[in-house]
Automatic annotation (TrEMBL):
Its main location: membrane. One of its GO terms (cellular component) is plasma membrane. GO terms for biological process: proteolysis. It is a multi-pass membrane protein. PANTHER family: MEMBRANE-ASSOCIATED ZINC METALLOPROTEASE M50B (PTHR39188), STAGE IV SPORULATION PROTEIN FB (PTHR39188:SF3). The active site is at residue 69. It comes from Nitrospira lenta. Pfam families: CBS, Peptidase_M50. This is Zinc metalloprotease. Belongs to the peptidase M50B family. InterPro entries: CBS_dom, CBS_dom_sf, Peptidase_M50, UCP006404_Pept_M50_CBS.
Length: 383
């Protein structure tokens, strides 16, 4: 989602980004409201007024989607799961978690938080509109009441739609939590829950096709052809996301059973910390072509230096700077033991922002595990 997206602010310390596709759906929603819903419910206004109200309504709807995602994020943060960003895009929004939930209960609570926020928003908006109507509807408030009803109904629909038990929808994640608690296998539960996403994707797609055909044949109003097209688009997205989740779960399930020592690089070339950057480039980086090297002193790991660390140093200082001054110091996050599953190594790399970890056993450097080695292993074994 990083490509073609822009940060518009932060909430709960989380970057909020808008994908380029959001602008398309924002225009379509605004246009649909300005040309259909608003004139039907607020007759007699100018075209400019309809478009202005449509734009406000579209912003409120996307604000509701953002609150939905913040519901997920807030609960995830209580479990110390970092959220890298929340991105609004053509199909709504997504909160990107840096780690999986620690147990089924956490998965359930994180998943249910979004729909709960949407349902509460829907009930509050519709309740406020009902109370305003009982108090006597003023002509000047008519527009606000129409917008309130729209936001209320859409939030209820958003909450209920997301409870459909098809992964990766929130209802599918609730289903995964139950299957995880029952079978004690997170990745198997993910594969099973993704079947729901595939099934509902097919069903929605067929429903959309039926609506389009009926609209084109005259059995339904012609304007509903666009609704059918949107249903097909959403169904395609759900099916593709479920299929991708299923494949990723199978991949992670495979890597969870493979220990690091089976694919680590055993021929380790280490750089001493007192080596200058210039010598490291000429004697290590260029001849070996590796993207990074462990830094070892007196047989002990003291750090890791990568191409990016070298690039951060002005070339005029290469002859004066030592590797020990620019390396990443050794830490528990930088090293890993040979019997740890490869999946944990991948998660550690992601958390540390590294493409390699140093394999250490009984204090001695025995190998390196890298992204490229993992990819090579997967290609060879056709995982």
């Amino acid at each position: 989602m990083q490509f073609g997206s822009w940060e518009i602010g932060r909430a709960l310390g989380i970057p909020i980004r808008v994908h380029v596709s959001w602008f398309l759906v924002f225009f379509l929603v605004t246009s649909s409201l300005a040309s259909g819903y608003l004139p039907a419910n607020l007759p007699g206004l100018s075209e400019e007024r309809y478009w202005a109200m449509g734009a406000v309504a579209a912003l409120l709807l996307f604000g509701s989607v953002l609150l939905h995602e913040l519901g997920h994020a807030y609960v995830a943060l209580t479990y110390r799961i970092a959220i890298s960003q929340i991105t609004l895009f053509i199909f709504g929004g997504v909160a990107q978690m840096r780690a999986e939930p620690p147990h089924p209960r956490a998965e359930f609570l994180i998943a249910i938080a979004g729909p709960a926020v949407s349902v509460v928003l829907g009930v509050v908006c519709l309740g406020a509109v009902e109370l305003a109507g009982m108090a006597g509807e003023a002509a000047g408030w008519r527009g606000l009441l129409v917008l309130g009803s729209l936001v209320g109904f859409v939030n209820l629909q958003l909450g209920l739609f997301n409870l459909i038990p098809g992964f990766p929808l929130d209802g599918g994640r609730v289903l995964r939590a139950g299957l995880w608690a029952w079978g004690k296998d997170f990745y198997r539960a993910t594969v099973q829950a993704s079947w729901g996403g595939l099934v509902f994707g097919v069903l929605f797609g067929l429903a959309g096709v039926i609506v389009v055909i009926a609209a084109l044949s005259g059995d339904l109003p012609g304007s509903m052809a666009s609704d059918g097209s949107w249903i097909i688009l959403v169904a395609t997205f759900l099916f593709a996301a479920a299929l991708a989740s299923r494949r990723q779960a199978r991949l992670r399930q495979s890597l969870a059973a493979v220990p690091v020592h089976e694919l680590m690089v055993r021929t380790v070339v280490a750089i001493p910390p007192d080596c200058t950057v210039a010598d490291a480039v000429n004697q290590f980086f260029v001849p070996h072509g590796y993207g990074g090297f462990p830094v070892v002193a007196n047989g002990e790991l003291v750090g890791l230096v990568t191409v990016m660390d070298v690039q951060a140093v002005p070339q005029t200082l290469w002859a004066w700077k030592q590797i020990g001054q620019i390396m990443r110091p050794a830490s528990p996050g930088l090293r890993i033991e040979p019997n740890v599953p490869v999946l944990e190594a991948m998660q550690r790399m992601s958390q540390e922002g590294l493409d390699r970890l140093v394999v250490v056993q009984e204090g001695q450097v025995t190998g390196l595990v890298t992204h490229s080695a993992i990819v090579h292993y997967l290609q060879l074994h056709k995982v």
